[in-house]
Amino acid sequence: MYYAQIRKFDTANGTGIRSSLFVSGCTHCCEGCFNQDYKHFRYGHPWTKEVEDQFINHLTNPNVHGVTILGGEPMDQVRDNDLLNLVQRIKEETKQNIWIYSGYTFEEIMAHPKTRAILMHCDVLVDGPFVENLKNLKLRFRGSSNQRIIDIQKSLQEGQVCLLENY
């Protein structure tokens, strides 16, 4: 896996102060995408054990209240197990809340074992492709009105998509 950037302190991509990981690589071709460079799977830097250790260590900072994973396309990171291992490690070692953004829908992610395995360790999913003609700058934490903010664990328990309110 490659990553485009890490923001140690981010308030734009989820609630509270978060650490954000922007992965590289995306197979979507969303018109109006604001991270065009991140579409290339080898853009940025290789994800290494040292980078992962530094990222995990930063999550112990008392000012950090969660993790956000976006990109690129996190659910396209199934060529290796780097992202799956990372979300597992975040939960085991830090117990941090994990938000993940995807151009795939919850239903599409759940239909594939590798992406479902990643999602199972996350708490909130912002799903669906960015749609230029549905762009709405007044929305919190999403770019277009077709995108949903989903409580993953509640959705898994209830067997249906459960949206988070007030977003």
Topology:
Layout: E1 2-10, E2 18-23, E3 45-46, H1 49-58, E4 67-71, H2 82-93, E5 98-101, H3 106-110, H4 113-119, E6 124-127, E7 148-151, H5 152-158
Parallel strand pairs: 2-4, 4-5, 5-6
Antiparallel strand pairs: 1-2, 1-3, 6-7
Description of the structure:
It is a single chain. Helix content is 25%, strand content 20%. It has 167 residues and is α/β, with parallel strands linked by helices.
Keywords, separated by commas or semicolons:
single chain, 167 residues, alpha/beta, seven-stranded mixed sheet, 7 strands, NrdG, ribonucleoside-diphosphate reductase activity, thioredoxin disulfide as acceptor
- The ordered string of helix (H) and strand (E) elements is EEEHEHEHHEEH
Shape type: globular
The Cα radius of gyration reads 15 Å
pLDDT average, as an integer? 95
Function: Activation of anaerobic ribonucleoside-triphosphate reductase under anaerobic conditions by generation of an organic free radical, using S-adenosylmethionine and reduced flavodoxin as cosubstrates to produce 5'-deoxy-adenosine.
EC number: 1.97.1.-
Protein name: Anaerobic ribonucleoside-triphosphate reductase-activating protein
InterPro entries: Aldolase_TIM, NrdG, Organic_radical-activating, Radical_activat_CS, rSAM, rSAM_sf
